[in-house]
Each structure stands twice: as C-alpha cells, then as structure tokens.
Amino acid sequence: MKLKYFVIACSLILLAACSAEPDESSSGGTASSQIPQSSSQTTSSSPAALDGAAIYDAQCKVCHGANGTDGFFPLNNDTLSFEQMVIETRDTMPDKKPEECNEACARAVTAYIKNDLLAGVTTPSSSQGQSSSAATVDPSMLTGKQLYEIDLGDGSCASCHGLDGEGIDSRGGSLLEQECESCQVSPSNLIAEVEATMPLRSAHLCVGECATKVSQYIYETFAKKTWAISACTNEINKASPMRRLNKGDIANAVQDVFGTGAIEIKAALPNEQEVIGGFATVGSALTTSTDWTSALVNGAIDAADTIVDSGAFPQCNGAEPSMVDTGPKLGECSTTPQCQQMYAGATDCSNSQGGVCLCGNGLCSASGGTPSTGACFDEALATAGKLLFRRTLSAPEMTRFKTIRDNIRSKTGSEADGHKAVVVALLSSPKFVFSLAADKKTAARALTGSELADRLALTLWGSVPDETLIDVASRNELKGAQLDAQIDRMIADARFDRFAEFFGDAWLGLDGYLIKGADVNKTDAQWRALLADMKTETRTFLQHIIKNNLPVNEIYTAEYSFLNARLKEHYGFTVSGNNTKFVKTNYPNNSSRRGLMTQAAILAKAFDGSKTSVVKRGVLPLEAFTCTAPRPPTDNADVEEAINEQANSNATEKSKVADRASKNACASCHAVIDPLGWVFTEYGNAGESVNLDPDGDALNTSGSLYNQNFANAHGMVDIVVEEDKFASCFSNKFLIHSLGRKVSYTSSFEDQCAIDQAIKSVTVDGNVGARDLIKSLLRSNIATLTGTVEDL
Tell me, what DSSP letter sits at residue 780? Predict the structure, then answer.
C-alpha cells in the first residue's frame, strides 16, 4: 500500500515558503524573488518567460503532489477550464500569500498543470470521477495517524484540519483540546461524527475500524483526552423538560374535548416564533409572556361562546341517566351523604317542592327522575376537567370551578355566562397549558403514568389523552404489553390522522412557500389549490407508510404516491376524468420520481422568491433525510464574500456550481450539496417535470455522489440509501418532536445509544417497519425515563 505525500504538513511548509525573508544579496529583494527565475524571467512578464514547472515544484507540489494527482488536493478532481484555473491560481495561490503569484505566474503554472501534469489524466469532466484510492485503503493495516493523513479517495482529515489538528482557514476547524467540539462528549460521539460526516465529500469512506482509529488519534493527540469507549447502557441522564402546549396542541385538545371551539382559540393564538429542528415542541422554545397569556384568554373566551352556545357544554354523556335513590324520603329534608357527594356544597335544607328536597343547587329525588341542571353540569365538568388536566379533578377543584360558575351567574343572571366562565377557566389553567411536572430534576426517575400518557397523546395525536389512556395510566398499567396495546390503539384512532400534518409539516418544512401563481404560470387561486394538493399528497403518503408498518426506507424509495387528477396532470402523467380523491398511483416506468425527495411539496420549498435554488434543493435531503447536512458557515469572511458574490452575479447556474467547487471555502461542503441539488433540476419551481435546466440548456442530471455515479434522481436515491442513515435520522427527528428537547444522534452518546437500540430491536431481515420503530422509540428508556441533565 502506497501512502500519499503526508510526511510534512502542507500548511506549515507552504507558510514557511511564502513567508521566508528574501535574501537581501539576491536580485530583486522583493516577494517576487521567491519564485524561481531564469535570467530571462527578471525582465519579462509574459507567460512564456516563466518556468511553470519550477514554480509548481517550489510552491504547489507540497499540497497538490509531484504529479498533481496525489497530494492533499488532487488536481485531477478539478473541473475548471484553463481560464478559470488561471483566475483561481492568481487570486488564491499560494495559500495565504496569493500576492506571490501574479497573472503571468498563474498562466505559466496553469499551462504546466494542464499541458504536462494532467495530459491524458482522467478528470471529472470526462468521467464521473470515481476515486480508486478508497478501495485500496485497508484500515487494519494502518494506524490512526496514517488514516488521518492519507487521502481516503476524496480528501483527507489533515487536508482540512491540518496535520497538527490546528485547522486550516476556510476548510476545517481546529481539533485542539477544547476547540474540538465533537471531542467534548465521549469517544463514541466522535466516532459517530466521523462516520456520519467525514470526509465531507465522501462520508462513507471512513466507517467502522477506520472511524474508530481516526477518532482515537484525534481524541488523544489533539484533544488531549483519555480514550475510553463506553458501552451503551439503559441509563438516561437527560431530563424531560416541562413544556407548554403549542398552538396546534391547544386547538386539537379543545376540538377533542368539546367537539367545537378549535377554530376560535387557534385564531386568537400567535404562531410559535421559535422552533428547534423545525419542531415547535421543544420546551425551551415554547415560552409564555403577558401578550401570549392575554391571547390565550381571549381565545378561550371566543371558544367558550361557541362551545356553550352550541350546547357542547354542559352536556351529559350518552343517554340521560336515572337518578339514584339518594334520599331524603318524602317529608324528610335532611341532606344525606349521597346527596352531598353528588352535589358538592349541599347543606341541610328544610324546603321541598312536590316531595323533592332541594340540596344546594341540585335536586335529590327518592323515586328517580330526570337529572337536574346541577347534576348534568357536575358530570360535564368532571369529564372535561379530567381530559384537559389529564387526571380526575379533586373535590376542591370541582368546588372552585362551580364557585366561578355561581359568581358569574349571580352577577349576570345568566346560566350560560356561568358555564362560559368555567370553560374559560379550564382552558386558561396552567394545568391544561403545561405538560410534565416542573420538578427540580434532582434525581433520575421514571415518568409517572400521567406524564407518559401526556407524552403519548402529544406525540401521536397532538392533543390530550382520552379517558381510556388516562384510566390505564392512573392504574399504573402503562407499561409492557399494555403500553404497546395503547400505542397501537392510538395509531389506529382517527386522531392519528393529524400526525402526518403536525409532525410531517414540521419535519419537512411544509410552510413558508415563496412561490406565487405567476411563478408557475397560474393564478394565485390556482396555485393555492395546487399547493394544498401537494401537501395532501405528502401527508397521505407518510400516513400510509406508518399505518401499514412499511419499511422506513420506503419513505424514500417508494415508486408510487397518492395523487388526484390535478396532481397527475401537474406531474405529466396520464389523466382520465377529474377525480378529486387521492388514490395510490404507481409511477410510470420511465419516471425518475421516487419517494419523498421527488414529491412536489418538497421540491417547491427550494424556490427563493425569484428562482429555484440548487443549493436549497441539495441541503434539504441532507438535513431532513440523512441528518448529515454540513454545518452552516459562521464567522467566515471568505464564505460570506463568496455568498455575496454569487448573490449579485448574473452567471449561469452551472458557472456558479463550478465556482463553488473551485473555492476552498466552499468546495468541501458543496461537493455533496451541489450534486444533490443539480439532479433535481429536472423538476421546475413547483416540482413539475421540465425539459431544460435552469440555464435553458438540455437536461443533464448525471453526477457523482459519495464516489458513485448516477444518471438521475431515481439512481441518486439508491446511492443515498446505501449510506444507511434514514432510520437513525427519522428517529432523531421523531424524538425531538416527542421529547420536547434537543436530540442529536451524532453528538450525544446517550441519544445515539437509545436510537441504535430502538432500531436494532425492530429490525427484521434488514428492514425496519415505520410503525414498529415509532413504538420502539416510545417504549424505550429515552421516552419513559427522565434524568437530571438539562439539554434544551
């Protein structure tokens, strides 16, 4: 096995070469004297007058290799034209000292590279550039240091992070001690980070033994930490935070409890302003304020008007129950214990009407009969309170709400006003609005039955538990087979039909579209109708996968979807009739559509207000489906400058892609982003099929990703599937939604272990059923226990 040129650090040698003080006794005495010169070069600035080979050998070989194909940055991976390479060399080379090589120098070096070094060498423009070196690397034969330094096929760790882990500007961050963020949790987290994201161009090239050896080298040598891999345990250290119900949760709960009023309270509540990972379920983001509380009360008042005026409250369940024999007997007017229990606050009374004794606000009859208004109200209050508070109301609470009713009724003279005041009080109570206890998290513990029931209902229904779930929880039976049975029941329930909307929309970002009718050759009304259909397609498809327990990977590989006539026409499929129903539709054999990635609702998210962004279309699958999107650049002047240049440029999209590939500050991330984004150029602004690319040229969606070639989106999905990150990423997203806290498979050992164990427990013949995975996650320790460490 032949190692590459990693004997001496590229950055250190280059810096030394560029910063060496000129010899005052030599001719010139300026920076330009550092470039090897012949006698003729001192008087001529023409390219021919400079020795490109000598300049390359002195200034470029250390990073690009003696042959241009075997250094930190192999030049045969470069798709730049001659003139583009001249500009790139003139403006950026040598690294950190571009002023050392002027236009003439750049032309001489470029001529040598193009005409001599790379003559006859295959480049990505003539072949998709699949690297052969990756196949020759056997991690068992190499040390962690060697694996860190060697070119794995599409770059090395050292080429971005430096041979000494010091980091290289615009390429990779420092790995030294506290600066190594991924080293601060555990060795296992660092291994997961390397396997999931490194090297950026080809993350799959260093996994298993390679990732372990590289991580140990980084951990011990650069981060100066003791290497000790922890085995996964069942311990949960992270706390489940108390969280407020969000706008959707509150509206769904009102609808489920009263059957009406959801529209009114939802209209009054503001949209959630802060989300984490796209989900408005995270406790630290769901804050309250005076304005929010005021909006809640106003919404509760509006909802109460509708609920009471429609007769939804108070309302006795089912048939009118017969009165039990609670006494007193005819002519006896002492209040019995039974009467007091039925009518809280009843006192001894001496009056009677027709043989019936008045007990407080209700009537007790010895011979049965129709329940009084008081009895019906008590029943309705107990039922609504139990559902909204997720437990049986206590006797003092019942008394308190009835006192509210009585006070308002006495002031206004209206029974309905009293009932409305009680509804407002219920919906404004912190016991309804907040989920999980606000304890001090001083000791790890299991969630109580009520807390777990609350979590299940918010996760699967986006609402409060029903009476069945509350009763099971109150008997401490929400565990084992009963827990499984309740999850199955809840998924089969009609309320689960909302899941694909409140989870799917947050996961996939199905809001905030910037398209207007004119952008897709439609009226605004036509576009709104089409967009509604697009969202329905995605939600119906996702619901189908989960309810039928189909493999998680089918979310991304399915060669069918659920379409109505309008969407079939939008996709260019054969349409017969004008069916508005969404039916399962197999894609034609010649279609490149496949799974969520090619559905119109996903593709249309990349429209930026004036055009479809290749970058956005590349980032979304990485972020939503594999959880491997590169971190957004921060505080990087070179990246900011490149972004501003492209934003103000009239260059073609293909030129912009090439420009990003040529800039050190951009290339490492966009080597993955842009191939993904470009393959989707066969779809227009709203995800319709098109015949021309964004520059008006004939479509050519072929490309290379993770060192494998693809012809179109259909083939690209196969490559991404091989990365085997779908199930873990889906689990990561689901747990953020369910737990109400930050969850990171790649940066938290605890989260990673929980997810891996949940997936492993339901993997059958290599497949993971979507419903099985959700059940496995919800019954695992990460969802049923709470620790003491706040990780919001």
Answer: S
- b/e per residue 570-587 (b: at least 16 CB within 10 A): bbebebeeeeeebeebeb
d(CA 635, CA 272) in angstroms, rounded, equals 28
Nearest alpha carbon to residue 715 among 573, 559, 608, 584? 559
Indicate the pTM of the whole model.
0.73
Task: Tell me the C-alpha distance between 483 and 453, whole Å.
Answer: 10
| Residue-wise pLDDT tens digits, 276-334 | 888 999 988 888 899 999 999 999 999 999 999 999 999 765 433 333 334 444 344 44
How many other C-beta atoms are found inside a 10 Å radius of the C-beta of residue 187? 22
149 in Cβ contact with 221 (< 8 Å): no
Instruction: Assess contact for 70 and 12: CB atoms under 8 A.
Output: no
> Could you tell me which of 632, 564, 556 has the C-alpha nearest to residue 593?
556
Q: In angstroms, how far is the first alpha carbon of the chain from the final one?
A: 47
Measured distance CA(407)–CA(283) in Å, rounded:
36
- The mean pLDDT of 403-408, rounded to a whole number, is 94
Cα dihedral sign for 245, 459, 452, 259? Answer: positive
E-state strands within 105-255: 243-244
> What CA–CA distance (Å, rounded) separates 170 from 633?
9
217-226 pLDDT, tens digit per residue, is 888 888 888 8
689 phi and psi angles, rounded to 5 deg = -75, 140
The whole-angstrom separation of Cα 27 and Cα 200 is 45
Nearest to 668 by CA among 178, 220, 241, 156: 156
